[in-house]
């Protein structure tokens, strides 16, 4: 294995390594790529060779012996290299990239959502999935770039060679990481202006750049691969450190070191960032405004449209991002997903959940206890109850043939002893704790951790009571769930344990209401149910939601069906100069989108819509960890 220093110049590479061959690099792989009308031939071969992109851009392939071998994905598409991380001037980013070949053309691409969220490219509306217009400093003719798009595995990749040609000095592949070194740039001026809708910050640059953004709830940081002269950065210094009293934070703080500049921006209440780029001269325009969302519709694939817009409702208008899925044009499988398939305890971001479950797209699902990290509501997968319904709340059930039903769901289990006594069980595999008997099966996990201080655990194997476990349990104490049985936990009613005895035979009966939901292999509950057969059926109090929850203005997630059979995955955000919608307002928004059946999902900071490896409805840093979601898989 030979390690090559990244900082070496191209000439030095050629001198030292001209006789060294790397068997993992495909032999004589020719890339023919049209850039701005000129046909540029690029060649990867067994030598460490330059790949010309024109102008001053040079692409160098540095391989450390672990690059994936070429893998076919279909009869005419071959993946040549792949990775799940890029490095932009040394800053590592979790961005999926692929190099692929089709019809004797070779492309280098990253996922579409990551191109926008991680590198500052603005995706524009399109009319066909195979091409994606992108705005990035207007290009040479003050027009959008039109990038080739290709679905590979779970994501849609954009060939960003035209962008690299304009921005990058050097590209390398190092242990499956795509390393991009951009051309040196310089900030020439920074201006701040007050507008009627908020503040505008304008950064003048000497050339186009790829930039990174990290936005929290009250602060955003933009990282620019550009040097800012001290006479400019010193105009925007950090506030003085005062121990006894807090000072007002400045709107903008600029720090610069070497060829990198960081802009720290304070976000006033109700304002968010809208960042755009302009050419002649090259400018980065940062707007802080309440109406930050741009109207857009992207045909992501045949039968899947990615949309965002403000939906007017009375005097308000709400930021809404949604995926519109037409089952007649695309073959999709739906399945409940969660972070750890070995057990039901645990929370993670929907982005990580989607990536680990290899989903094409997804939406966050049902409620959960953020302290115990356990589900609070129905999760049924492939016919197995991983968590039972609670409180007669709204749920969605579906099968693999396209059948979908939304309704309020109740599931009842009855335990019958060989003495003929019957006991209604409080829950099956649930983090919802009530007085009575609950049952935990192997689908809950390998072990069960008592959820209260005092429980009586009854171990049942082969439908026979084997033993009792009683006493005060430590917080971390676990009890093995038998593979051929289950545990009964008795809480709050210790006298019930006297009705059971070692050696007693037990039977179980169950009923699902409404019965039609019993036949669906997949179920996920949240609530409340919002729409049924075109009628508003919102009854949050009847589903045991609190009045505070009912009246709350917050982000909302929902899943819905239209009259034409389209499936909607909807994330509703803040209104202009107000918080997000109430449940009633969310219902009306869904009606505006054409929904006739709709279910509210967990909302607030949990509201997450997943596509292309990214959360697309909010800055990733503001997305809370969730317990479960619904994953969608293209067949």
TrEMBL record:
Pfam families: NAGPA (PF09992)
Domain Phosphodiester glycosidase stretches: 457-633
InterPro entries per the UniProt record, alphabetical: NAGPA
The protein, known as: Periplasmic protein (DUF2233)/Localisation of periplasmic protein complexes
Source species: Dactylococcopsis salina (strain PCC 8305) (Myxobactron salinum)
């Amino acid at each position: 294995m030979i390690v090559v220093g990244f900082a070496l110049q191209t000439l030095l590479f050629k001198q030292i390594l001209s006789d060294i061959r790397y068997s993992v690099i495909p032999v004589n792989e020719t890339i023919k790529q049209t850039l701005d009308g000129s046909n540029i031939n690029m060649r990867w071969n067994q030598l460490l060779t330059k790949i010309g992109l024109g102008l001053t851009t040079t692409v160098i392939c540095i391989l450390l012996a672990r690059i994936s071998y070429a893998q076919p994905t279909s009869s005419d598409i071959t993946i040549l290299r792949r990775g799940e991380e890029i490095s932009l001037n040394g800053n590592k980013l979790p961005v999926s990239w692929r190099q692929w070949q089709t019809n004797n053309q070779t492309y280098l691409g990253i996922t579409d959502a990551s191109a926008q969220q991680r590198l500052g490219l603005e995706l524009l509306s399109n009319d066909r999935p195979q091409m994606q217009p992108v705005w990035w400093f207007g290009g040479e003719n003050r027009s959008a770039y039109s990038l080739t798009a290709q679905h590979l595995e779970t994501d849609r990749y954009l060939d960003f060679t035209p962008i690299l040609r304009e921005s990058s000095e050097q590209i390398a592949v190092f242990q499956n990481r795509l390393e991009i070194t951009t051309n040196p740039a310089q900030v020439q001026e920074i201006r701040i202006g007050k507008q009627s809708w908020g503040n505008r910050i304008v950064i003048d640059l000497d050339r186009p750049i790829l930039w990174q953004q990290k936005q929290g709830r009250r602060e955003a940081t933009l990282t620019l691969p550009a040097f800012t002269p001290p006479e400019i950065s010193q105009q925007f210094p950090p506030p003085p450190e005062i121990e006894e009293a807090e000072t007002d934070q400045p709107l903008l703080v600029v720090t610069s070191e070497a060829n990198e500049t960081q802009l720290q921006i304070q976000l006033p209440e109700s304002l968010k960032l809208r960042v755009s780029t302009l050419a002649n001269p090259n400018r980065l325009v940062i707007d802080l405004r309440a109406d930050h969302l741009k109207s857009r519709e992207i045909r992501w694939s045949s039968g899947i449209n990615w949309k965002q817009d403000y939906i007017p409702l009375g005097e308000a208008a709400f930021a809404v991002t949604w995926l519109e899925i037409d089952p007649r044009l695309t073959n999709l499988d739906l399945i409940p997903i969660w972070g750890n398939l070995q057990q039901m305890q645990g929370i993670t971001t929907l982005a990580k959940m989607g990536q680990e479950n290899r989903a094409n797209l997804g939406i966050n699902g049902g409620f959960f206890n953020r302290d115990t990290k356990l589900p609070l509501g129905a999760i049924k997968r492939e016919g197995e109850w991983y968590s039972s319904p609670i409180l007669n709340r709204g749920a969605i059930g579906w099968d693999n043939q396209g059948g979908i039903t939304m309704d309020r769901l109740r599931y009842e289990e009855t335990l019958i002893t060989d003495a003929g006594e019957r006991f209604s069980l409080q829950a099956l595999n649930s983090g919802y704790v009530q007085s009575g008997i609950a049952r935990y099966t192997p689908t809950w996990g390998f072990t069960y951790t008592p959820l209260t201080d005092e429980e009586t655990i009854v171990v049942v194997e082969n439908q026979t009571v084997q033993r009792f476990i009683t006493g005060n349990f430590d917080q971390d104490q676990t009890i093995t769930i038998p593979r051929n049985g289950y545990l009964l936990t008795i809480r709050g009613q210790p006298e019930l344990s006297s009705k059971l005895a070692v050696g007693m035979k037990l039977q179980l009966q169950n009923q699902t209401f409404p019965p039609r939901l019993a036949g669906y292999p997949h179920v996920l509950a949240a609530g409340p149910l919002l729409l049924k057969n075109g009628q508003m059926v919102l009854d949050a109090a009847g589903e045991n939601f609190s009045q505070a929850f009912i009246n709350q203005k917050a982000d909302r997630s929902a899943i819905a069906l239209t009259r034409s059979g389209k499936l909607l995955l909807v994330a509703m955000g803040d209104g202009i100069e107000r918080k997000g919608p109430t449940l009633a307002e969310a219902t009306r928004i869904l009606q505006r989108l054409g929904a006739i059946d709709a279910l509210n999902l967990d909302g607030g900071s949990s509201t997450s819509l997943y596509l292309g490896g990214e959360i697309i409805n909010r800055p990733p840093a503001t997305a809370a960890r969730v317990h479960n979601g619904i994953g969608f898989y293209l067949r």
